[in-house]
């Protein structure tokens, strides 16, 4: 299988992703077999209550066994879903799920910054009605936010400033927000 280079410079290895997926999926079936099948978690809960947590009062032992079964059940769901996902997408690099970008998510296509996206869409529609010279001036004036699209220098402080800009734009009209981004206020 072909190794490809991720945008962050690391190597994407599909065979490693497939192997991890197989291990996770097999771990689910092993845990399913150990617990005893469909009614196994109920039997394990009874076993924990009567033998492991029998030093506690009956109500507290039942509570602890219920918490233990919830943890085991959630682990089983995670093993099943994560293993199946990795096995089905082992040859596909999905940056949304597989990248841990320092500083957060880029703005483009992100629902986390709807006001910034709204203003940038408004800028595009406004530029359609302008002469090329005026459109270029507007673009240059508001292009500082464009560096976030390319993920250039996108650290935690940049994300903090971006969140501040997002909240500031929420109370502004599209025209006023565009003037704010163009530094004309």
Secondary structure layout:
Elements: E1 4-5, E2 11-12, H1 14-35, H2 40-52, H3 58-88, H4 95-98, H5 114-128, H6 132-141, H7 156-169, H8 174-181
Antiparallel strand pairs: 1-2
Helix pairs in contact: 1-3, 2-3, 5-6, 5-7, 5-8
Gross morphology is elongated
Question: Strand order across the biggest sheet?
Answer: 1-2
User: Share of helix among residues?
Assistant: 55-70%
**Percent of residues in beta strands:** under 5%
pLDDT < 50 stretches: 103-109
* Helix/strand/pairing category: mainly alpha
Average pLDDT score = 80
Number of helices in the DSSP assignment: 8
Structure description:
A two-stranded antiparallel sheet has the order 1-2. Mean pLDDT is 80; it is low at 103-109. The chain contains eight helices and two strands; from the N terminus they run E-E-H-H-H-H-H-H-H-H. It has helices spanning 14-35, 40-52, 58-88, 95-98, 114-128, 132-141, 156-169, 174-181, and strands at residues 4-5, 11-12. Helix 5 (114-128) runs antiparallel to helix 6 and helix 5 packs across helix 8 (174-181). Strand 1 and strand 2 form a beta hairpin. It is mostly helical. The chain is 63% helix and 2% strand. The chain has two domains: 4-98, no CATH class; 114-181, no CATH class.
């Amino acid at each position: 299988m072909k190794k490809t280079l991720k945008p962050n410079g690391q190597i994407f290895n599909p065979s490693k992703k497939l192997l991890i997926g197989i291990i996770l999926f097999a771990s689910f079936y092993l845990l399913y077999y150990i617990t005893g099948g469909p009614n196994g978690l109920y039997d394990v809960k009874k076993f924990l209550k009567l033998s492991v947590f029998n030093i506690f009062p009956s109500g507290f032992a039942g509570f602890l066994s219920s918490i233990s079964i919830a943890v085991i059940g959630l682990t089983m769901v995670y093993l099943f879903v994560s293993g199946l996902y990795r096995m089905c997408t082992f040859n596909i690099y999905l940056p949304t799920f597989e990248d841990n970008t320092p500083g957060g998510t880029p703005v483009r296509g992100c629902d986390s910054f709807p006001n910034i996206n709204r203003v940038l869409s408004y800028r595009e529609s406004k530029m359609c009605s302008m002469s090329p010279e005026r459109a270029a001036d507007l673009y240059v004036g508001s292009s500082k936010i464009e560096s976030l699209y390319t993920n250039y220098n996108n650290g935690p402080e940049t994300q903090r400033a971006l969140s501040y800009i997002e909240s500031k734009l929420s109370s502004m009209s599209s025209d006023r927000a565009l003037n704010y981004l163009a530094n004309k206020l």
